[in-house]
Amino acid sequence: MQIILKNLKKAYGDLHAVDGVSLVIPSNTVFGIIGRSGAGKSTLVRLVSLLEFPDEGEVYYDEVRVDNLSKDELIKRRRRIGMIFQNFNLFSSRNAAENVAYPMEINGMSKPEIDLRVKELMALVSLEGKENAPISTLSGGQKQRVAIARALACKPDILFCDEATSALDPQTTHSILALIKEIQKKMALTVVMITHQMEVVRDACERVAVINDGEVVEQGKVTDIFAHPSSDVTKDFLTHLVGVDEAEAVEQDRLVHWSKKRGAYTLRFRGGSTDQPVLSRISRDLGVEFNIRAGGVQKVGDLEIGTMVVDISGDDTVKQKAIEALRAQDVVVEEDQQ
Ligand SMILES: Nc1ncnc2c1ncn2[C@@H]1O[C@H](COP(=O)(O)OP(=O)(O)OP(=O)(O)O)[C@@H](O)[C@H]1O
Prior knowledge:
11 helices; transport; five-stranded antiparallel sheet; 35% helix; ATP hydrolysis activity; translocase; ABC-type metal ion transport system, ATPase component; ABC_transporter-like_ATP-bd; 2 domains; single chain
C-alpha cells in the first residue's frame, strides 16, 4: 500500500503543527519519520492514519483518496490499519490472548476463527505459552509483542509504530525492531515508524523523512541521509548518535571517545572509503595532522558508515586544502558551528 500525502496542513489555533507536508511512502517498506519533540510527528501520524483530518491537503492510499471518506467507509478502512504505541495501550483487565482477540471480537469474527488466529499471532511474535498471562506479569518487550500481535489481528496493510520502542532498553529495542522488519516482509506491509531516535531509523528503516516545525526538511534513503545529511536537524540527530551513551549503545555500534573535547570536524566515510587510509594519505601529502577525538564504524543496512570526530592542525589555508582533499575522496566533512 503506497501512501501519498499532498500538502497536508493542520493548525491548533496559531500553531501550525503540520505545515505543508508532501510525501510519498512507498508500499512494502519500513519508512521512518523522525523529528524532535514538538516537531509535529504525532499530529502527522494522526492525519496519515485517519484518526484526525487535515485543515488542508490530501491523503491517498494507493490511488484512493482517504481523507474525505464517509463514516462507514472510514470505519472499514481503519480496520485495516494497525497501530502500536510507546505505552502499549493494552487492556490490563484482559490476558495476553484476550488482548489479541479484542479487535477480532469487535469485527464479529467467530470464536473458533478467533482462537485459531490468536494462536497463529502469538507464535508469530514468539509468545507461545503466554496466552493466559495477565498483562501486568509481562516485560515491556513482551507487552509490545502482544500489542504487535493485536495490531496484526485483522490483517492490516499498513502498520503505524508511534515511538514503539522508546520505553524499551536497547537490547529489547533491537529484538522488537527485528520482529517488525520480519513481519513487514512476511506480510508485505507498509510500516511507518515515528521516532525521535536515529538508532531506530538506522536499524529498521529503508527510507526516512526528517520533520521540523511541521515541515519535511529532508527525506530519502537512510543510507544516503546517514552519509550525506543536509539539514541542521539531521546533522544534530547524527551527532547525538555519535555521542550516544555507551551504556545504552548496542555493542557493535559504539563510537569510541578518546578525548572529552569535541573535535571541530565530523567526518563521515561511506562504503569503500572506510577501508582506505584516507587520513594518513592526506596527512602525508599536505603535512597536516588529524587529532582524532572519537571514531567508529556503523552498519546502516548493508552499508558501513565510518564517523570520526577530529581536529585538524595547521593554518586556515592548509585546513581548507585538507577539507577539499577529504571531500574529493567522497568523505563528508561537517564543521562544528560552535
Ligand atoms: N490537540 C492539540 N491541541 C493543541 N496543540 C496541539 C495538539 N496536538 C499537538 N499540539 C501541538 O502541536 C505541536 C506538534 O505536536 P506533536 O505532538 O505532533 O509533536 P511530536 O513531534 O509528536 O512531539 P512529541 O515527540 O513530543 O510527541 C506541539 O507544539 C503541540 O503542543
